[in-house]
Every structure is written in C-alpha cells, then in structure tokens.
Amino acid sequence: MPVKTEEMILNMGPQHPSTHGVLRLELLLEGEIIKGVKPHIGYLHRCFEKHAEAMTYPQVIPYVDRLDYLSSMYNEFGYVTAVEKLLGIEVPQRVEYIRVIMGELQRIASHLVAIGTYGADLGAFTPFLFAFRDREKILSLFEITCGARLLYNYIWIGGLSHDLHPDFVRLAREFIPYFRPKIKEMNDLLSYNKIFVERTANVGILPPETAINFGVSGPNLRGSGLKWDLRRNDPYSVYDKFDFNIPVGEGRMGTVGDCWDRYFVRILEMEESLKIIEQALDQLPEGDVTSAIPKRVKPPIGQVYARVENPRGELGYFIISDGSVNPFRVKVRAPSFISLSVMDELCRGHMIADVIAILGSIDIVLGEIDR
Amino acid sequence: MREYFNNIWLGLTTVFIGMNVTFKHLFKPAVTIQYPDVKLLLPERERNRLYVNMDDCIGCDQCARACPVSCISIETVKSLPTDDLGKTSNGKKKALWLTKFDIDIAKCCYCQLCVFPCPTECIYMTDVFEFSEYKRENLLYSFVTLTPDEIAEKKNNFEKAEAEKSAQKAAAAAKKAEEQAAPKENKPSAEKPEDKKE
Amino acid sequence: MIYDFLLKLTGSEIAAGFIQSLLPLFVFILPFALIAVLLERKVSAHMQDRLGPMRVGYHGIFQTVADILKLMQKEDIVTDNSDKALFNIAPVLVFTGSYAAFAAIPFSGAFIGSNIDLGLFFIVAVSGLVVAGILMAGWASNNKYTLLGAMRSAAQVISYEIPTILVIITIVMITGTLNLYTLSELQTGHFWNWMIFGGPSTGLIKVAFIPFMIIGFVIIYISTLAEVNRTPFDIPEAESELVSGYHTEYSGMKFAMFFLAEYANMFAVSAIVAAVFFGGYQSPFGYLGNSLGISWFIPIEQFFWFTFKGIFFVLVQMWLRWTLPRLRVDQLMALCWKYLIPIAFVNLLIVGLITVL
Fold first, then answer.
1. Which DSSP letter does residue A187 get?
2. A193, B15: Cβ pair inside 8 Å?
C-alpha cells in the first residue's frame, strides 16, 4: 500500500490564548511545518468608519480610542492632528508638549504590553506580569490626568480636556528613574535568555524590501534595519525639538529583521521615549490648554491626510469634509492591519510554535485591524 | 565546535541570570492589593458612573446631543406660567418639567463628553465603579424626580394649556378673519412662537 | 519494616500488601499534590510581585481543597466524536504510570514500597506507561490540538529517557547496584558521602568524580524536567500554542487525575534525583535519633529528609518554570540529541575510566 500524506488545516483562533484578540488563523500544515497562513479578520468589526460619518468631529474621539485600545492616546493624537490640519488652527505650545508626553508614555505602555505578551506567548509568564506592573504606573499617570485608564478622550481638537494634574510632573519625573532599571531587568529575564533567543532569532525574517512592498511601518519596519520614523522623517507636533535616536534592528542574535530584532527595537524605543519625556518635562511651557478649542467644529469643504508614528507604525487618518459638522468620510490607515498581511510571507516553512512567535513579534491589536 | 560550547555556556549562564532575577523578586513585597477588602483611593478626576443632580437640571438636552452613543434620553414638558420650578444653584431659571431623564449606563462609554457642555454642571461622573447588575434593565437609570402621576398631570396641564391657547388663537384668528376680510395666511404662524413665549 | 508491622497487625499478607501499597497514595501523593499546587501558585505569585490565592483560609492555604471540591462537582464532559473507551482509560493510565513509580521509591529506611533489586530500572520503565496514556488521551479526544500535544509528548518523553538512563548507568557503574535502598545506604553518613560529592569512594578518585557527578546531575535534572513536561519543556501542553495540549478536552475529575499525575510525577523524578545524587533519605549531618538513642525516631527523620530533598527539587522546578520561556519542538530534540546525550556519553566514558583506575 502506498503511503499517503495529507495536509492538515488547523484553525488557530478566534478563541486562542495567543492570537492577541479574536483573530483566526487558518494554518495549512504538513506535520508541524507551515505551508501557508490565512488570517481571517472581522470578529471585532464595529463599523468605526461608518459610525464616524454620523458623528460630529469631537464625538469621533471616543470611537478613535477604541481602535487600538492599547495606544488610545496616540490614536487621539493622530485624529486631532488631522482635524486641526483640516481646520487650520494653531494649538498652544503647552498643549503640544503635553500631547508628546502623553504620546510617549503611551508608547512605553503599549510596548510593555507587546513585550510582556510576547514573553507569555513563548511560555515565560513572569515578564508578562512585570510588564503589566510597570504599565500600571503609566496608567495611573493617565488616570490622575483625565480620569480614565484605558480609553481617555483626553486629547481634543485644538486642546486637551484637562490641564495636567498638579502632581503629574512630579510623578512622571519619578517614573523615569523607576523604569530604567526595569528595562535592564527585562533584558536579563527575557531578551538575552538563551531559550528566548533560540525561539526568536532567525525566525520570521522580514527583509527590508518585503517590508516596504507590504507597507509595513513602525517597529516592524525598523526591526528590518530601516531607519524610518515619522517623528524624525516627517515631524509633526513638536517632535523636531527633541533629541532622540531611532533604534533599528542590527541582527545581533541572528539575521536582520528576525523576531528578536523586532522585539528588541521595542525595548530600545522605550528608552528613547523616556529620553523624550525627560526633555519634554524640562521644556514644558506654561499656558492654557483649552484656549484653542473651537466651540463648533465645522471644517471647510476639503480633504486631509495626516499621519503619526503610533507605537505600531504609521497611523494615518484620511478625512473628507463636506462642510457640515459631521465628517463625510474617515478612513484609517491602521498599522496593525498592514503588519498582519505579511504573516503568510513570514510563517512559511516554520513550525506552529513559530507562528506564535511571529504573530507576537509583529504586535497586532485586533481592535485596529477590524475597526 | 566553539559555537557548541558557547551555546552550552550561554544556555546555562542566561538561565542562571534569569533565575537570579526571579529569586530576588520572591522576597519583594507584592504590588497588588487585596481588592474587595482594600480599595485604591481614586483620583479626583475619576470617570465612572454618571450622576445627574436633578435639582439643577434645566432640561436643555445638551448632554444628550453631545453623547456619541446616545445613551441619554431626555423628554421635557413645558411648565405653565403659573408653575414655580425654582432656580438652579448657579442662578438659571428652570422652565421645563423633566418627564424623562434616562441614562442607559450599559451603553455609556465613559467619555465625559456630556459633562462639559452642561450649563449648570448638574451631570457629572462619580467615582462609583461597582455597579454590576444581574439584569440589563437594571442598568437603565432613571433620574426623574417626578412621580408618574405628576408626569401625567404635568402633561395633562400642558395639553390643556395648549388646547386653551389654540382655542383662543382659533377664536382670535376667526375674529381677525372676520374683521379684515383679506386673507393673510402667514401672520398667524409668525405670531405663534411669540404666543408661546408668554 | 512497615510491611512486617502491617502483617502482624492484620495477619493477612494480602491485606498488608494492599494497605502498604495504598500508603504512598493517601499519606503522601494526595497531600503532596494539594500542597504542591498551592506552593506552585504561591511561588509564582511572589516571583511576579503578587500574592496569589489569599481568600480561602489564612493566605489561601485551603485554596487547593476548594479547587478539588470544585473539580469533583464539575460535569464530566465527554465529547461526541471522541473514542469513549480510550478517553476514559487515558487519565487512569497516566495516573497509574506515575503512581507505579512510587512503588520503588525509598521514602525512608523503614518504608520502601517494594525493595526490588531493579528499583531504578523499574521507575524508568513504568514512567514510560505515562506516554501511552498521554497518546491515548490525545488520540481519543479527536481534536487536532490534543493530537499534536500527544505526539510532541511521546517524542519528548521517549527521547529524554535516554540521557536519564545514561546518567543512571554512570551511577550504577560506580555503585554497582540498581537497588534504591542499597544506593541510599551507600551514601550514608555525612553529605560528603553523597554521590554528587563522589560517593563512598575515597581519596583522589573521589575528588576526580565531583565535576563529572555535577555534570551528570545537571543532565539528569534537565532530562527529568523534560520527562514530566515542565517548562521549559512543557511543549506538549504549551498553553499559548496548543491551548493545553493532550488534556484540552478533559474536565472535572479526569482533568484532576492528569493534574495529580503531573504533580506526582514531579515528585517522583525529584525523588530519583535526590536518591541517586543527594543521598536519598540520608540526613546530611547524622541523625538526632542516634545521638539521643531513640532508634524509632531515625526512620521519621529519614522520611523528613527525603521529603525535604524531594520538595526542594520540586521547588527548583517551579522556580525554573516561572523564569524561562519554552523551547520549540525541534530545539527540544536538538537539546536532547545534540547536547545531553553526547555529553552524557562522554561523562559515562570518563567516569568509567576513573572507576577502572
């Protein structure tokens, strides 16, 4: 009797501990080797873009929070950047600085989740809880400022909902020296661990050309060795006033663009964010944060595309205004969505366990993918 | 060969470094709290359950319009000129009977957008966050202070007044029509809002 | 000793044997599993700056009791398309495999379930039964994840038995016995008589043994860790990949049996490591009973030392689990075949040469 082999289709998700939400991956397997990956999305679809058409401009902000729920601050930042560009208003310097501080704190919080869950995906549970412990500190900073821990509705068109809490600057300054040693601890516990390196180095290599062809951005692109960061390459807000490096993947443990590089770029970015926060706190000007908030947001007819460097990559908003109080169209360029599209390319020829490692390293948030 | 021994060396040392980190943490005090027994002191800007101070509400509907998820529904009935509704704490005169002020807290997204436009600052977010319910209907909060009977009465009063007014108006219109035989359609409708304001 | 005592008490060989064989289960494994589960949760919690279970009893000491009660009340779900017979036998078989190993484990000089000459060999052999149970569970559940988990587990447990046996052979070569009782008695006296410090041999040979014994200990510890599917080798039940591997479909008491077997196994392998390298039930400093002249106190002390050593190694297993990520299947095999087995062979060779000298 001739031996017959068959390819097996394994459904990973939508309920699965490591798909970071409700993502379903259809894996085509030959034994444990992946022949193809088909992501099925839409389980978290909430019609954001259609909803936005029925909302007034300020009412969209709470919805924007819920796109990428791990970096709500930055989503608001991107959205208000777009609307302000459409309205053509100048915002006070203090507002810009506070936005940058909040954005960078959010970047650290978001990267902590990425790193922590990545550890948990690969079986190390302790880094996950360490990361969440430190993230709590940042969330408390947000909480004293705007009263919410996850979905802030803090950055408004033309300003902010509240000024900084009187304790904020002190607490933020205390956070920086608290957090620096924690990065080292994370490196000891996870980054340089031989098992972790074995699991991530030379796995899921994303060459820079492929990354560009797919439109991948953010830490995933920088992990492939490309120095592309919108904060530097297309500065918005007051990012041109700060001195910071753009870490890129160097292939220290394996090949440039592997999972370890993507992971480590995030670790390095947290340190850079700390630098930015430090400088911003030093330069923080005085002023009124609500003075430039328009009473009624009614932009002229036109369209605008604005992009910011979200913790996950280039977050772009394309808004068409028909001159009414509601946007005619809001289109989001979601970085996670684009990162997810390279899954198939990255996973082929690897094993099931690597799918987890690769999925964790591109750090997707399903709220943003499904919108 | 060198790589082989290097692998062994790295494997052992990094494991020991990691074990050192976790061992140190074994003796560090916990950062968690025993939640239902110990509760965190919430900051003053805390955004949790909505509360409406009905004494101050003038029924302007601005919060309901600001709400992105339409979880606030307000219905009002005009008061009669003879009714005295009192004033709000910041000196605004109340002119509407609130017959319905429902907040579906299950829908609420805690964005605080309803709080800012309120002219009397009567809707605000409290620090109460433990209000889970077994039934979803229980999450529909009604803030109306009037009893159903009173609501019916107010509605009735208003309708009566309306009816009287329209009767008067009809009479007046009829009179006018009689007096000036020339038909002027626009005038009564233009006068209508002015009548109401009295 | 205990057998003789029971024989006198009951007057029947069958009853005495029966009671003696149940003793480890009720006196040891069940309480140990209860404590170990709590310990695992507490250790992990404190390593992660948490407190762990706190609500049932003082610092949650009755948490596992409550959990067991919950598991017993749970509905026993058998999926429609599963192979019912195999599905029901599998947890029993897994537990039998790990329980059978306790037959040859010397808890103290007075209590060893069955003092057979092939004790070490017997333990290694019966723990192979666990693989059959796991494979059955994985296959019978009729679920792709469980099947993958079971296949990984089979491959893993079988491969890692080789370095375990190689290290055991190294020891057997020095001591010339597979009997765990004799092996423990050989390491009597003080802790420098333990195998890890060269065993009962003397002089230069003893010193020469030490580094190779340490290598042997590391190898056997790693491979036993893999045999009981603990992190970093927990790929058969890798939570984030295979949900929970071969016992995904199990619930209620059947799940509890897998759980119990896992913890029993953890202790069994720790006991082997302790018995082979760390003097078994022997005290490191001599006995209180000897110096006080109370001879019946010695077995109790021995039991204490044995449990202490076993639990210490279980604790290290937990410590490792909450520190390390897990390996991938091929890396796991590479570690076994490319690193552990060659090193164990070289170790065996060198120890053999030293013994000849």
1. I
2. yes
ipTM of the complex, rounded to two decimals: 0.81
Which residues of chain C make contact with A10, given a CB cutoff of 8 A?
A: 144-145
Q: What is the pLDDT of residue C247?
A: 78
Rounded to two decimals, the pTM is 0.84
**Cα separation values, B191 from B162, B177, B184, C151, Å:** 15, 15, 12, 87
Q: Please compute, for residue A245, the number of CA atoms within 13 A of its CA located in the half-sphere on the CB side.
A: 11
**Residue of chain A whose Cα is closest to the Cα of B112:** A153
Q: Do A199 and C328 touch (CB under 8 A)?
A: yes
Q: Are C352 and C173 in contact, with CB atoms under 8 Å apart?
A: yes
Is the pLDDT score of A193 beyond 70? yes
For residue A356, the chain C residue with the least C-alpha distance is C241
Residues of B in contact with A190 (CB under 8 A): 18
Residues of chain A contacting residue C146, judged by C-beta atoms under 8 Å apart = none
CB-based contact C340:C332 (threshold 8 Å): no
Tens digits of residue pLDDT in A210-240 = 888 888 888 888 888 888 888 888 888 888 8
CA B36 to centroid of chain Cα atoms: 28
Task: State percent of chain A over pLDDT 90.
Answer: 1
Burial class (CB in 10 A: 0-12, 13-18, 19+), B188: middle
Residues of C in contact with A21 (CB under 8 A): none
Structure tokens at B89: 């704490």
Residue A350 pLDDT greater than 50, yes or no? yes
Helical H runs in B49-185?
A: 62-66, 148-179
Q: What Rg do the C-alpha atoms of chain C give, in angstroms?
A: 21
Sheet holding A302-310, edge to edge: A302-310, A313-321, A327-333
Residue A164, token pair as written in the block:
């900084």
> Does B182 score more than 70 pLDDT?
no
Owner of token pair 């907040």: B103
Option in C48, C231, C330 nearest A351 (CB)? C330
Q: Give tens-digit pLDDT for A268-309.
A: 998 888 888 888 888 888 888 888 888 888 888 888 898 888
Alpha carbon distance B28, C114 (integer Å) = 45
Segment-wise mean pLDDT, segments of 10 residues, chain C, 357 residues: 69 74 74 85 86 83 85 82 83 84 77 75 82 85 81 83 86 82 76 72 76 86 84 72 76 82 84 82 73 75 84 88 84 86 89 81
Task: Output the pLDDT for position B184.
Answer: 52
User: How far is A78 from B141, CA to CA, in rounded Å?
Assistant: 35
Specify the length of chain A in residues.
371
Partner B contacted by A143 (CB < 8 A) = yes
Cross-strand bridge partners of residue B74: B101
| In contact, A33 and A350? CB cutoff 8 Å | yes
Structure tokens, A303: 């369209």
Report the pLDDT value the prediction gives residue C1, as an integer from 0 to 100: 60
pLDDT of the residue at C115: 73
Report the C-alpha gap between A165 and A147 in whole angstroms.
10
* The pLDDT value given to residue B198: 40
Residue B23's closest chain C neighbor by CA?
C47
In terms of Cβ atoms closer than 10 Å to its own Cβ (0-12, 13-18, 19+), residue A23 is buried
- Which residues on chain B are in Cβ contact (under 8 Å) with C50? 30-32
User: Which CATH number, 3.40.50.12780, 1.10.730.10, 1.10.645.10, 3.40.50.300, labels domain A8-370?
Assistant: 1.10.645.10
Residue C293 contacts A where some CB pair is shorter than 8 Å:
no
Q: Cβ distance A253 to A199 under 8 Å? A: no
Contact C231, C321 (CB under 8 A): yes
Closest CB to C49 among B18, B19, B30? B30
CB contact under 8 Å between C326 and A129, yes or no, is no
- Cβ separation C46–B30 shorter than 8 A: yes
